[in-house]
Fold this sequence. Notes:
5 helices
Amino acid sequence: MRARSVVVYTVLRLLAFLVPFGILMIFPLFREYYWLAAVFAALIGLSLSMLFLRRPLDEVSAGLAARRREERSAASDEEVEDGADGR
């Protein structure tokens, strides 16, 4: 897994939330009810990420799956010790 793809995906997800939140905070109603602006920004950010961030998410997920597969295929310490005993 490349760290670059994780950083890119994280930054884009943060921007998908922070930009709508900043725009909503311009309106006087949302300045008073900032929690409502946060809820709407979260919903907008989720929608944007589902539509436009599919490829970065797939890269991050594939990298995590490959890393997990490598960890499972590597022999554990217990297996190596049992093999050295000759049992």
